[in-house]
């Protein structure tokens, strides 16, 4: 997670399990509309569907970008 300041006392920003809908997996951040937050790693893996561009991941956020969009930073793909 390059260039992301992690605030350990934040209650809004956190690492979360997610599905990311994207055809490209080489980006470092994704808009909130492309990210579905899930309860567990198992749920993310179970709901993944590469044929529909749904990729399981661990993300950090949401954060507000310089363009005033809520975004999630990719921590790692599962």
Structure description:
A 5-stranded antiparallel beta sheet has the order 2-5-4-1-3. The protein has one helix spanning 41-47, and strands at 14-21, 29-31, 35-38, 54-64, 70-77. It is mainly β and 78 residues long. A hairpin with a 5-residue loop joins strand 4 (54-64) and strand 5. The longest helix is centred in the middle third of the chain and has 7 residues, at 41-47. It has one domain (14-77).
What is this structure, in a nutshell?
With 78 residues, the protein is mainly beta. It contains 1 helix and 5 strands, in the order E-E-E-H-E-E. It has one helix at residues 41-47; strands spanning 14-21, 29-31, 35-38, 54-64, 70-77.
Strand content: 35-45%
Distance between the termini: 15 Å
Helix content: under 10%
* Largest sheet data: 5 strands, antiparallel
Query: Which descriptor suits the 3D outline?
Result: globular
Strand order of the largest sheet: 2-5-4-1-3
Structural class: mainly beta
Order of helices and strands: EEEHEE
What integer is the average pLDDT? 89
Rg for CA atoms: 12 Å
Number of continuous helical runs:
1
Extended strand count: 5
User: Runs with pLDDT <50, length 5+?
Assistant: none
Q: Total domains, how many? A: 1
């Amino acid at each position: 997670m390059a260039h992301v300041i992690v605030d350990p006392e934040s209650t809004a920003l956190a690492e979360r399990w997610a599905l990311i809908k994207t055809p490209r997996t080489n980006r470092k951040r994704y808009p909130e509309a492309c990210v579905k937050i899930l309860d567990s790693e198992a749920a993310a893996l179970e709901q993944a569907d590469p044929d529909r561009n749904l990729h399981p991941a661990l993300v950090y956020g949401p954060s507000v970008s310089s363009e005033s969009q809520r975004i999630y930073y990719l921590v790692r793909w599962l």
